[in-house]
Amino acid sequence: MEDIFINIFGKPEGIIISQLISACRFTIYLSLIAFIGGGIVGALITFLRIIPNKSLNIISYGYTWLFQSVPLLMLLFLLGLGVPRLLGFDINPWVAATISLVLFTSAYLAEVWRGSIISVSIGQWEAGKVLNLSFSQTLRLVILPQAFKYSVAPTISFLIQIIKGTSLAYIIGFQDLMLLGKRWANAPVPGSEPFLIFPLMAVMYFCLCYPLAVYAKHLEKKTILNN
């Protein structure tokens, strides 16, 4: 692929564009890992927030409060640089970035999904009791199918935030689009000036995020019309 871009744009522009596009795959991989891992943990936290158990409600609330209050950049610093150096060991940037983004993602998705669940009329819970359904049966058969339509659009919208959030992982040495772009921008090579590299990177992030934004908007309108 690099040869194609070199033939079209020449050197070093063709090399730069080819390498930036190649680096996008790591941004996508990390975003998907964070979204799936954060979704699994977030689903558990959501369940703990709504079950009739005050102790678990407090613990899960503390979890969301903590990781929503700590900036993602600070999580990356702590898990990628601070704690490992304090304890005297090295940590792979992939591992540090994954843990940080999963914690960050799970806290926000838990709130999104809890909000979708509580948006369902309280009468639906009462209907479950009338039908002699247990809490878990009411949640699974009555509440979640209705909450799902409210949660899809904001969930996809938050995926956009995850993609943009991965750009911060360069500070711990994660090899993604942002790190490679900054290296080229700092290189003393004609054609790799910052005023060329950063707009090019912005276009690539736009291409990753815009289709998701359009799809989320479409789902939001569809949900409003169905209501």
What does this structure look like?
The chain is mainly alpha-helical. It contains nine helices and no strands. The termini are far apart.
Gyration radius over CA: 22 Å
Number of helices: 9
Q: Percent helix among the residues?
A: over 70%
Number of strands: 0
Percent of residues in beta strands?
Answer: under 5%
What structural category do the secondary elements indicate? mainly alpha
**Could you spell the SSE succession in H and E letters?**
HHHHHHHHH
Q: What does the largest sheet look like? A: none
Primary descriptors:
mainly alpha, 9 helices, 227 residues, single chain, 82% helix, elongated
Task: Write a compact overview of the structure shown.
The protein is mainly alpha-helical and about 230 residues long.
Summarize the topology.
Elements: H1 2-9, H2 13-50, H3 54-69, H4 72-87, H5 93-118, H6 122-130, H7 135-165, H8 177-186, H9 194-226
Helix pairs in contact: 1-2, 2-3, 2-5, 2-8, 2-9, 3-5, 4-5, 5-7, 6-7, 7-9, 8-9
